[in-house]
Structure formats: C-alpha cells, structure tokens
Amino acid sequence: MNARTRQRFDEQLEWVLARLPPMIHELIEKVPLHVEDYPSDDVMERTGVEYIDDLCGLYTGIPIGEKSVMHSGTLPDVVTVYREGILTAASDRHGRITTERLRKQIRITILHELAHHHGLTEEDLRKLGYG
Fold this sequence. Notes:
mainly alpha; Zincin-like; three-stranded mixed beta sheet; 6 helices; 10% strand
C-alpha cells in the first residue's frame, strides 16, 4: 500500500472515530483498536481467508459473556482493522472509493468487531445490518 493511500485511510479513520459515541470510545479504551494494512499469514490461515483484502477486521479475545476467572492470564482483547480489506469493501464495481463509502465501511467494521467482544455472532450481526 502506498503512503498516500495509507494517509487517506488513516485520516478517514480519525474522522470516523471522532464521531463515534462516547460509549464506543470508552469501549475502545478497554479493547484497543489496531490498524494494519492486511492480515498476517497466520491470521489468514486461522480464519480461512484466502486473499489479503478479504478481511476487514478481526476481534481477538474472549467475549464478555464467556470470561471467567479461568481466563486470567490470557492476552488482552484487541480489535484489528485491515486497510486493504476495508478499501476493497468500500470500492464500487469500477474500483472507485468515495469518502462517504470509505467512512461507512470503517464505521461498520469497527462496530462489527466490537460487537464480537459483546458476544454477537456473525449471524446476529447480519440480522442487524453489520454483517
């Protein structure tokens, strides 16, 4: 990914984050948000993703409803968003990406992955329009 595309993405990410409700910001303080260009080979293998731009985001951790004392000492929960996947998802059929579509896809991805932290499944999210 070139520096200009990365900068454009990151500017729009900051725009989206600035407009999320305070409750989401409180959650992001507990479940950090990481940004990467694309998933690692290990992540692709674990998730069954074939192409680097097929994955927009990933929640890594134990959903709130499944946490217990037995999970102490585990790695912290993290949400990772992937620039390549989000850019692909935001593209129209001609490969164009409007600012509005990019912002919408960034927002959907962040909320989708944070919802996994609260125990929502892919099916739950599809029903809510965040699938």
